[in-house]
Automatic annotation (TrEMBL):
This is Zn-dependent peptidase ImmA (M78 family). Residues 138-263 form the IrrE N-terminal-like domain. Gene3D superfamilies: 1.10.10.2910. It holds the Pfam family Peptidase_M78. InterPro entries: IrrE_HExxH, Rad_response_metalloprotease. It comes from Corynebacterium felinum.
Amino acid sequence: MPEFKRITSWLDGSQQPTLRQAEALAAKAGTLFPYLLLDEPIEEKVDLPDFRTVGSVGLKNPSSDLKQVIEDCRSRLDWYVEYAQEFDVQQDKPLPTYTLESNPEQAAKEVRNHLGWEPGHYALGEKAVAQLSRLIENTGVLVMRSSVVRNNTHRPLDPEEFRGFTLIDRGFSLIFVNAQDTKSAQLFSLAHELGHVLLGEPGVSGEEIDGAPDIERWCNRFAAEFLIPASYFKHVWKKFPHQHQKDAIATIAHRLGVSPAATVWRGVDLKLINREDAHELIEECSYFGPIKKTSGGNGINNIRPRIGERFLSAAADAVGTDLLPLRDAMYYLGVKKEESARSLLDSVRKAAA
């Protein structure tokens, strides 16, 4: 970065950046310029409860990427609620609601039937994620899946920071899934965040940790039964002798599109696998490869899952009205050219015709 070649001397105080250089540095770091003038860095929080953090505290020191994604999704959901109220949009197949006192496994069975989700029917990566997204959107929930901030392929999201989150506003919900994650992890995130919607509880989902609060445990149990039904697991498991547990896990994981780790822990929950053996079994069974990175291209096919079909349909319906001027539509879609916004929304109209 030639423009920051004196950054070492700025840090040790021997030189000072110009105003232009300081503003450029703030922009590069994704922070506000006044923050650079503080003696100590400010500790920021995402004002969504992070139910996978001990104590349900806010996610501390979120990256500028996560803050931008949440801000974008909040703006979209806020607009969609106004659109739904203005046009009297009715939810097609409203989801049932549950509380923490509800049995998550029973809820999973009921919601599977409600959505028409068949575990194992779409076991291959993107097909399973795309199909479950469609089924969830059919109930009136917005689903957005992206691996980058807006449509900027130079700002990939970090699955180590978060895997997904849920926003809820005036009875409408938005699920966001970090598509930089593996397909099996995305599938679990979708099911997990669906659990948050059913409970009416928003949150940010990250790595699994000990001491997770009740909401997080409920959503994990719901997702596990939703994607890996106990009856299916037991049916396959009994076909394999004890010495071939790895083969049973590989078979279940492959057929259902879930990870070996999720499969092993499901076996632990069902008391078919000893907890003491779980970590070793996961290591032996895992086929972790490199997460596929986004490699450029901001075409319509890339943008559609990032925004979600339900939101796109609403935007195509309202663009050009007082409710959605074209410039606002460009902001919500994350595109910089009017031509790109028109082309995308035209394609949505043609598909719906």
